[in-house]
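Hey L., structure's done. Input below.
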Amino acid sequence: MSEQPVIAAKAPAKVTLEAGKDYWFCTCGKSATQPFCNGAHKGSAFAPKKFTAEKSGDAWLCQCKHTANAPFCDGTHKGL
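Output:
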């Protein structure tokens, strides 16, 4: 069985992104700086997901780590 991510929260995190800036999204759920990576995945099967903001403004990023549209929330947390 493959490792499952820790559910950091069952609600998305509202963050303000800056267009053209790179971000590192936490995929393991262990980061203390949710929804962004702080290196807590080290030693696990997980790695952060790098993404570049397409536009500046608010975005809702997944914290349950089960979205099909990472790093963005797709509502999957409602069924967990």
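The chain has no helices and four strands. Residues 13 and 61 are 5 Å apart (CA to CA).

-- N.
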